[in-house]
Amino acid sequence: MAATLCAAAPLSSVRSRAPCHSAAAAVPRHPARPAAWARPAVQRQQRGTAASARRMRVQAAAASTAAEIQELDKEFGIDGCVEVVAGLGGLPTVRLTHACGSSTEVSLFGGCITSWKQASGDEVLYLRPDALQILQSDNPKSKPISGGIPHCFPQFGPGAMQQHGFARNVDWSIATTSADPQPDDRDPEVTLLLEDSEYSRAMWPHKFKVAYSVALHGELLRVDMRVLNTDDKPFEFTMALHTYIEVADVEDAAVRGLKGLEYLDKTVDPANPARKTEEREEVTFSGPTDSVYLKARDHVELDVGTGAAVAITSNHLNDVVVWSPWTAMPDFYKHFVCVENAQFSSPVALAPGEFWRSQCEWAVRDL
Ligand SMILES: O=P(O)(O)OC[C@H]1O[C@@H](O)[C@H](O)[C@@H](O)[C@@H]1O
Known about the structure:
Blueprint: E1 4-7, H1 41-45, H2 47-76, E2 82-86, E3 92-97, E4 103-107, E5 112-117, H3 129-135, E6 151-152, E7 173-178, E8 189-195, H4 198-203, E9 208-217, E10 220-229, E11 235-241, E12 244-246, E13 254-256, E14 262-265, E15 274-277, E16 282-284, E17 289-293, E18 299-303, E19 308-315, E20 319-324, E21 336-350, E22 354-366
Bound molecules: 6-O-phosphono-beta-D-glucopyranose (BG6).
């Protein structure tokens, strides 16, 4: 399906509740700390002082984050359905709650959806334990969140910049929040904003805006992404919604809706993938899997092996990536499969002032 290209139009939600907040700030890069044995002796002797200074810095950062969260909640919270809370890693996070009991959480760090729960309280998404470990450390933003639904933008990868681009490494801001006026059946929604910064332009020399709306419609999770070229020259990008879904056991999981499609098998050499045709009605897992299905249909389904499936419907996202690292992640590969909606095989080209738009929604259905 062809990408949607439109003339510039306002990016904010029509049902906007609050005016645009602050612009996205770049996350400073943190050089890796040398291991204790590699540090000079004198530095090791000063460790106590350095550690308490670091503790004080962490406490000060936590206090300012708490104040920022309170401020954001005052500005963007909507009684009973939209809250800004300290989410994973204490990071500012928007929690949407639907009257039916379903909920979702979106971290401003990376614009990453970190949780989507059904009304029963069952979590649908998967957060890798290694990501949780980083989020629980002193430096929760030292790595992008691996789990939930992170962004790959402006590059899916591999390519010229770091794998999966920079959108998942930086803070997004809240542009608007809204909820339908129907008090018994509100669809809570948040729109996050990402703009170019010194950090992004060092990697990708373009001016842009991304608006990303996340909404709950009953138990269904829905996103809408717009990318606007605010530059005076054209640019191209690729992207993906890198969705991690929890499964009972990867060996009991299956993806349906891919039969007959051509795909790039990246398991051997991601830079030179083998081109194959999918013959299977159900794509099951018995080893490492890293496949990019080209010109995929708008609907695929992941059977999670519990008698339920996650049905994924997308619009203007041409490709579907299916990834399981298998024993490269021995402690937890059994618990998740990534089914990613992507625009990879034909990059989106935007002239100045043009924007591209895509949507995706996820629903759990009983089999
Ligand atoms: O960056 P993450 O979350 O660890 O994901 C990495 C994987 O992401 C997938 O989208 C790619 O197809 C894989 O090739 C890659 O290894």
